[in-house]
Design goal:
- The chain is an alpha+beta fold.
- Helices cover about 25% and strands about 45% of the residues.
- The chain is built from 6 helices and 12 strands.
- It starts with a strand and ends with a strand.
- The relative contact order is 0.16.
- The N terminus is likely disordered.
Length: about 280
């Protein structure tokens, strides 16, 4: 049985509290060029601050972050991670992140960061000015910056959708999951089916799995094929993209994660593949 999601308002403890997590992400990219690997390890603190008539206020702070690949553009990505090291977020009553409260502070700090990055990479990365200017535009656009933050592995794992408390394992929930601008300006949309596989009788915590297939009606295969064709010097007509998505989450009654994992796989046969595995563990 599959039904549409009908979330109820969160019923969480309204006292300020913090949880600390370790998050490990492994990325593997294969193409006609040399395969690329990158492993990122982070320690993150999520703090519930308060509830108001809009929703819930949280802060998310990256306490420590390391990554294995610092070659070329990955070195820039490592430096750019500082943009999201301290976020103050609003969620609505159902747990969806709807606003980055401290975006103004992040934008102010970016002016100095942009100058430093320009000087650091001007001899190593072609068109670094164009790249940094694009990031500047994203930070200064509320919706664009919100989309950027929401597709990160940290936010995906720390802010899972919240479900009504009376959901049972006999019900599957039809949902959508969209990675905005995954291929340059093209979204990566999924049709997702969510199932509860266990509910703890005493704590009322629950375990869920979410499996997703590419939403071919929303996905622009032609635009993505053109992008990959130009990148790898092959004819775009020969490129068909497929993708799948999987999450498994162990959640407390209030929606806080105890342990989570997600897997993303993208394939353009014989041309390009992308695999990402991210795991969160409560410390």
């Amino acid at each position: 049985m599959t039904t549409l999601l009908l979330n109820e308002d969160l019923s969480i403890n309204t006292k300020e509290r913090s949880n600390i997590y370790s998050i490990n992400t492994s990325i593997y990219i294969k193409s006609a060029e040399e395969p690329i690997e990158n492993n990122i390890k982070s320690t993150v603190k999520k703090t519930f601050i308060q509830k108001d008539q809009i929703g819930y206020l949280f802060s998310v702070e990256v306490l420590q972050r390391t990554q294995s690949n610092k070659e070329g553009i990955f070195s820039l990505e490592d430096k750019l991670s500082i943009i999201q090291h301290k976020l103050v977020l609003y969620t609505d009553q159902k747990g969806e992140v709807i606003s980055i409260v401290n975006r103004g502070e992040i934008a102010e700090a970016w002016y100095d960061q942009q100058k430093i990055l320009q000087k650091t990479f001007e001899n190593d990365i072609e068109d670094i000015h164009v790249i940094l200017e694009g990031i500047h535009q994203i930070i200064h656009d509320e919706n664009e910056f919100l989309s950027l933050v929401k597709k990160s592995d940290i936010i995906t794992l720390l802010f899972p959708p919240i479900y009504q408390q009376n959901i049972t394992s006999e019900v599957s929930i039809a949902q959508k999951k969209i990675f905005a601008d995954f291929f340059d300006t093209t979204d990566l949309p999924f049709n997702v089916v969510t199932k509860v596989i266990a509910i703890h009788e005493v704590t009322k915590g629950y375990q869920i799995v979410r499996s997703g297939s590419l939403d071919t009606q929303l996905f622009d295969n032609e635009e993505t094929a053109s992008l990959l064709g130009n990148l790898f010097k092959v004819h775009p007509y020969n490129i068909n993209i497929d993708a799948n998505y999987f999450e498994a989450q162990d959640l407390k009654e209030n929606g806080d994660a105890e342990e989570s994992i997600f897997f993303l796989n993208i394939e353009a046969p014989e041309i390009y593949s992308y695999r990402q595995i991210s795991k969160l563990t409560s410390m």
